[in-house]
Amino acid sequence: MFPICHLLTPCLDKKETTLTTNKYLDTYANDDICGPEVRHGLRRNISSDLKYPKSTVAYVIKKWKVSGDCRNVPRVGRPTKLGDRDRRGLTREIRKNRTQPMALIREEFQQANGSIVSMNTIRKEAHLHGFHGRAAAHKPLITKYNRSARLMWGKSTSKLDCRSMETDSLE
């Protein structure tokens, strides 16, 4: 199946394709990359012919294979403040000491990354990564004596049938 962008004839007033300020390729550059892929071209050859990095060519081809279109669609909403690298740094800071307050985590994160982030952003990202301000469940201390007593109780109750257990629990 050919992408929709190749069924259209290319415009004659095609500008020289360069990376824009937002680091997206324009539609014509995407079309140039998707076209040879349809004709079974190698990514290495496409990148050398069109003078684009191999990673850019691979990204555009992957986008075309997943969505079936090679146009840049505008994103909905405001861009996120933290990138992938910042998120990894934040999880690293949280794991150093999970019990410290968010204010200290925020200060250490800002010193490490040099980016200014609000407390709400730090809290939201921490929640997304599974760090919550919850106390752990209190586990009973199971000593050697307690373990044997529990085992004996379990064996004695497993021999009873359901009716006798119901009458015992009602008393």
Descriptive tags:
disordered N terminus; 54% helix; single chain; 171 residues; mainly alpha
Could you describe the 3D structure shown?
It is a single chain. The chain has 171 residues and is an all-alpha fold. It is built from 8 helices and no strands. It has helices spanning 27-38, 43-50, 54-67, 84-96, 102-113, 119-128, 144-158, 162-170. The chain is elongated. GO terms for molecular function: DNA binding. It comes from Caerostris extrusa.
Backbone structural class: mainly alpha
Kindly state the mean pLDDT as a whole number? Answer: 74
List the uncertain runs. Answer: 1-21
Helix content: 40-55%
Beta-strand percent range = under 5%
Rounded to an integer, what's the Rg over CA atoms?
Answer: 30 Å
Biggest β-sheet description: none
Distance between the termini: 74 Å
Encode the helix/strand succession as letters: HHHHHHHH
**SS field, number of helical segments:** 8
Query: What spatial form do the alpha-carbon principal axes imply?
Result: elongated
Tally of strands: 0
Give a summary of the structure in a few sentences.
It is found in: Nucleus. By secondary structure, the protein is mainly alpha-helical.
Write the layout of secondary structure elements.
Blueprint: H1 27-38, H2 43-50, H3 54-67, H4 84-96, H5 102-113, H6 119-128, H7 144-158, H8 162-170
Helix pairs in contact: 1-2, 1-3, 2-3, 4-5
